[in-house]
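ugh ok fine here u go
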Amino acid sequence: MTKSLSIDFPIGVRKVARTIGRILLKLTGLAGTGFLLLVLIGLWDRHEHEITASLSRIYERYLASQAGPSSNPRARAAAETERLGVVGRGRQVAMTQTFQDQPKLVATGAVGSANQGMSVALSADGNTAIVGGPGANNADRDRPASIGPAGAAWVFTRSGGVWRQQAKLVGATSEYGGGLWSQGASVGVSADGNTAIVGGPSDNRTTGAAWVFARSGDAWTQQGSKLVGSGAGKPPLPPGQGMSVAVSADGTTAIVGGWGTEAAWVFARSGSVWAQQGKKLIGTGAVGNARQGTSVALSADGNTAIVGGGSDNGKTGAAWVFTRSGGVWTQQGKKLVGSDSVGSARQGTSVALSADGNTAIVGVYPQWRRLDTAKQIGRHGCRCAPRHVHSANRRRQRRYCGWLCRRRRCRIGVYPGRRSVDSGQEVGWYRRRGEVRTLSGAVRRWERRHPRLI
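structure:
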């Protein structure tokens, strides 16, 4: 009689064996899944190649059906190859073009800390540059006219790739200075480089003004008296006319912004005489002290103007567009406000217009957000004790600390100090589209075309 040999494994060994079996089974399943994915990827790649080849054949048939330079298919193919080669060479040239750094422009005849480069402008051909240097802030405070303003603007011209200083521009004035930036705080130049405008918001104890200069040959002379807009009144802030300036391409229209008066003024030239054109430009729909006139810009023909106000609606900021018809300026549509701004963006800190006046760009001030922390004591029912922060931040911290306590997220310890975060500069594009007929005539709409640029 034969007896079968049986081995009785311990319970622990059997459990390990079953675990290993389950692991091997799962690995087998994963391997099968991976193989299936590889097959699907291969099929999709093959299908994609077939679609590409099919589209190429359709395109070749389309080229063959078109009337080309010759009825010979080979000639048409050669022409198409040449066209693609020209396009490729053009792209290669565009990619290889780079800006070359040239020696910096440092004007002679500056006195003290001139702050050269605070404002700049360039002619259309790029051969005439104007650089503003208003000096230190408040440099003109109680400065008598006999001494002259602290700031100025310098003109540079390029010949044969070499830049040379051509003139130093200082506008004539008979009033004391004030506590804002001196002449050179803002500058502008016409397309041909023969007309320049220089803003000085500190003139006449911060009433401000702008000066226009004309070039004849290599000599620059002031053209007429300084430009001061009427109807400024007595605003709560210094008027500061000349904080921003711009001139049209032909040099016959100028705009001067005054951020303290919430307005901008347009001046037109007849011969060599400048005169204010209409009333000051004030955009509607402003909320609070918008500081309209912080920035200004003109189209090439001078018939479209944009005025920025960086403090509108609690420093959200905005910009307003105006158009001229028959010497009369009217606001075009509502104020421009980017919809995706964050916090106190101060939209309108800088503005610019295209030559045809149909595209505008609006910049904001660099945003600095201060993140303060508080002292938190205890894990449940903690107490906030922020220090060295403003009352508004203190209230926000207490609310935040209370939120932490209610969710049992408060921890024992002190979280000191504060830090700043720079969220960068943002700009938004706008494009003028369509027309809307109203009782007052044709009004073009402005709509946001692109998201903010960071």
